[in-house]
Amino acid sequence: MSTHFSVPPAQNPPPRKRKKWPWITAAVAALFLIIGISTITHGGQNPATATVTPAATAPAQVETDRNAQQIGYEVTTTGSGILAVTFMKPLFQIAQETAIKGQKWATTVEAYGPAPGVSLTAQNKGGGTITCKITRGGRVVAENSSTGDYAIVSCAL
Fold first, then answer.
1. What does the radius of gyration of the chain's CA atoms come to, in whole angstroms?
2. What are phi and psi of 36, to 5 degrees?
3. pLDDT by residue (tens digit) across 49-94?
4. What is the Cα–Cα distance from 98 to 70, expressed in whole angstroms?
């Protein structure tokens, strides 16, 4: 008498569970980014209660405001050059320059109001030390340095 054995069908391994932590980390980072942009845009005020000046009336207010301040931004490096500079302009406008030649960069903006937002971030093209400096009315109000390959430096008030 012969016995027939049947082989059970091959079972597929259970599907791998996808890791959730990258998604959670990305969501938290996005939340912080949104909060940061909201804070910069609304000057630290609650967006629901913030008073926003229409762009059409801003120039007229700027012309009549006599509290203008000269804000100076300066970046220097001992390395091969400056890769990028990001700085704050009046009315919380962010500007970035990337076509920088040489080891020095500087600009001056005129800011109005009692406490304009002031910040500066820069990155080296290679090694060396990169230094940022912010002046207000000719007086140094922030200065910082960073060293290393593609080092980033930041100054702010």
1. 27
2. -65, -45
3. 333 334 443 444 444 455 678 899 999 999 999 999 999 887 778 8
4. 23
Two structure tokens written together for 119: 């910040």
**Residue whose pair of structure tokens reads 């804000």 in the numeric block:** 71
Residue 90: DSSP 8-state: G
- Cα–Cα separations (whole angstroms), residue 5 to 2, 8, 10, 11, 36: 10, 9, 15, 18, 68
Going by C-alpha positions, the residue among 100, 152, 142 that lies closest to residue 117 is 142
Rounded to whole angstroms, the Cα distance separating 37 from 148 reads 29
3-state SS, residue 88: strand
In this prediction, residue 130 carries a pLDDT of 95
> Residue 15, SS3?
coil
The answer on pLDDT for 47 being more than 50 is no
Mind listing the pLDDT tens digit for each residue in 18-42?
666 676 777 666 666 666 665 555 4
CB-based burial, 87-111: b 16+ in 10 Å, e otherwise? bbbbeeeeeeeeebeebebeeebeb
Classify residue 66 by its DSSP letter: -
What is the Cα–Cα distance from 93 to 117, expressed in whole angstroms? 9
Q: Give the max Cα distance, the chain.
A: 110
Q: What is the pTM of this model?
A: 0.57
